[in-house]
């Protein structure tokens, strides 16, 4: 609002200064409340800490860690003892496929919006359990 005792030029400068001061105060408030979150998706960073703290043993198990050389490099660890076993089943004991629909005929898609629905969960459970896929496989 213009002050009748000041000229337009003086009043504009005062308003501008007040605006800058208000913006600065607001910026200072915002800057003190910013939280910086850093996610590290490199397991080697955490495992280096284990090594620094002299953790005696780390047991990693999985069916998909091969090739072990590149995996160990990714973890930034040297494994003193490493056991790699061959596959424990033969090819004829493995079935791989895509099951598009469950026993009720509903699609077995799992987007976020439907994965919590009881009907979807039942359909998924029944398709891999007692009613469908497992019954079709040779035992």
UniProtKB/TrEMBL annotation:
<dbReference type="GO" id="GO:0070182">
    <property type="term" value="F:DNA polymerase binding"/>
</dbReference>
<keyword id="KW-0347">Helicase</keyword>
<dbReference type="GO" id="GO:0045910">
    <property type="term" value="P:negative regulation of DNA recombination"/>
</dbReference>
<dbReference type="InterPro" id="IPR045028">
    <property type="entry name" value="DinG/Rad3-like"/>
</dbReference>
<keyword id="KW-0547">Nucleotide-binding</keyword>
<dbReference type="GO" id="GO:0005634">
    <property type="term" value="C:nucleus"/>
</dbReference>
<dbReference type="GO" id="GO:0010569">
    <property type="term" value="P:regulation of double-strand break repair via homologous recombination"/>
</dbReference>
<keyword id="KW-0378">Hydrolase</keyword>
<dbReference type="GO" id="GO:1904430">
    <property type="term" value="P:negative regulation of t-circle formation"/>
</dbReference>
<keyword id="KW-0067">ATP-binding</keyword>
<dbReference type="GO" id="GO:0090657">
    <property type="term" value="P:telomeric loop disassembly"/>
</dbReference>
<dbReference type="GO" id="GO:0003678">
    <property type="term" value="F:DNA helicase activity"/>
</dbReference>
<dbReference type="GO" id="GO:0005524">
    <property type="term" value="F:ATP binding"/>
</dbReference>
<protein>
    <submittedName>
        <fullName>Regulator of telomere elongation helicase 1 isoform X1</fullName>
    </submittedName>
</protein>
């Amino acid at each position: 609002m213009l002050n009748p005792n000041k000229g337009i030029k003086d009043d504009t400068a005062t308003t501008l200064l007040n605006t800058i001061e208000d913006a600065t105060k607001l910026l200072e408030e915002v800057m003190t409340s910013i939280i910086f979150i850093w996610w590290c998706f490199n397991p080697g960073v955490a495992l280096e800490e284990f090594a620094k703290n002299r953790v005696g043993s780390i047991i990693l198990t999985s069916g998909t860690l091969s090739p072990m050389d590149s995996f160990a490099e990714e973890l930034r660890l040297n494994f003193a003892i490493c056991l790699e076993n061959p596959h424990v089943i033969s090819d004829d004991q493995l079935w791989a496929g895509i099951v598009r629909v469950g026993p009720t005929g509903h699609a077995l898609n799992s987007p976020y919006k439907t994965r919590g629905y009881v009907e979807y969960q039942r359909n998924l459970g029944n398709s891999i359990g007692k009613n469908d896929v497992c019954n079709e496989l040779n035992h």
